[in-house]
Amino acid sequence: MEIIEKNFDTTLDNIAPIPDKQNTLIDAIKAKQQLIETLMKQRRKMEEKIKLPEMPNDKRNKLKTEGRLFININKMICYRAETALANELLYFSKADDEKRMLIKQIIQTPVNIMPAYNNKTLTVTLHTLYTLR
Within 13 Å, how many C-alpha atoms sit on residue 27's CB side? Predict the structure, then answer.
């Protein structure tokens, strides 16, 4: 746009350098487009996945760290969920540790799930727990 605006304000004698500048810019654009096409061809030749032995060692260690971080985040989420459920057991007279153990057993216990579509309810029946007597 700037070049067009400059053409309106200049005389014919001053217009000569402007097409040269345009040609230079066009050549630069074409060179960049060729570079992009070359890089795209190189990328298409690369495999989408690599095997672990082919991965550089510095990148492998990063995977281990990120994996540990992911596992630790999941553990924290589970611990908070257990705590929230244990806090809901208001009338349970046992100590907090036993509440947490009960919640862990409930989470790991097989259940029967029976939806009642008419009443819009979901009945969850726990199989026998040895903590509940």
Answer: 6
Residues in the chain: 133
Let me know: does 86 contact 99? Beta carbons within 8 Å.
Answer: yes
Indicate yes or no: pTM above 0.70: no
pLDDT tens string 1-42: 565 666 666 666 666 666 777 888 899 999 999 999 999 999
98-107: long-range contacts, CB 8 A cutoff, minimum separation 24: 98/131, 101/131, 102/129, 102/131, 102/132, 105/129, 105/130, 105/131, 107/82
Show the tokens assigned to 81: 């969920």
Yes or no: say if 115 and 121 are a contact pair by the CB < 8 Å rule.
yes
Residue type, 112: N
Beta-bridge partner residues of 122: 115
pLDDT at 132 over 60: no
Taking the C-alpha atoms of residue 26 and residue 20, their distance in angstroms, rounded to an integer, is 10
